[in-house]
């Protein structure tokens, strides 16, 4: 009872803070429009990557940087890729175009000259310059690494153009449609969602989920594992825990587990092995890159952990952190990075970021086409909400919005309408 009361008070506190921050940002951006004046040779604040962390950092800075500075976003993709929906759109056809959202409208209201966006790939990062694949060299006053992580489909599609992304999703749809015995490797969110969706749409298919850990969704606690396992088995998905598969060839008719057991398989989909996209910084700051997974070590200020480069920050999946790696965490880190860059420009002390598990430590999970689970935690108590109705699922979504977690997504989605 005491823990429940504390949780309620914490939740209310988070809501008030989120609402207060949103109001402050709105008022400050309106004032900024009239104070900012473009100049011929502004100092660059370069942001590499425009997914959840980078895109939000860019918007916040574009609406707050003082005259004399400009935000420059370097993004290799033509469209914002809404990775949350990739597993679902790998199974359900006719919606894949919705996963690719035009860049630009999210900056609506930012003053002219405060930002620009370049579709290109960064080849090299120096102490004060970056070199692009196109041959362009840019100076920077501050640099933000928001390159995210590498993974195979459906977690990431590894394409740069919208039409390529649509084709990649359609190709996976066709492979799933033509398969009889499908094996999904990885019991994280992507693997669980893909397996449950495939079985929901194609109940006649044999679907097996293989996970190396003893619990599904092992970063989120036992309650969500229990619900996910029940949903998977209820749909008829065979779940094998604590096992790995051996090497699987493209034409192999089965996968072989570490125990030697063989499972029929004419389609293998790996939902594992995310690795931080930190190659561009590894040569400049090798000691700041973790040998395990390539994640970038950062200080509490989200500056990289190399005192030589106090002007370089990192946010999102690329960051070596014990906290969660999800969009809510990335967006919150973006707020700290943008704020600290402004404070550095003004010569003020920097603020320290610490994970807030009530805001960041949850997940909204689909478990087939008609069931959702929302998991929250704050270190005191786990809370799991499940739903078989769209009405309650929408209420769960509004829970995230109240906590300030998805206004970003609402604004980005408006660009696609």
TrEMBL record:
GO terms for molecular function: electron-transferring-flavoprotein dehydrogenase activity; flavin adenine dinucleotide binding. This is FAD/NAD(P)-binding domain-containing protein. Residues 1-22 form the signal peptide. It comes from Penicillium arizonense. Keywords: Signal. Residues 44-334 form the FAD/NAD(P)-binding domain. Gene3D superfamilies: 3.50.50.100. GO terms for cellular component: cytoplasm.
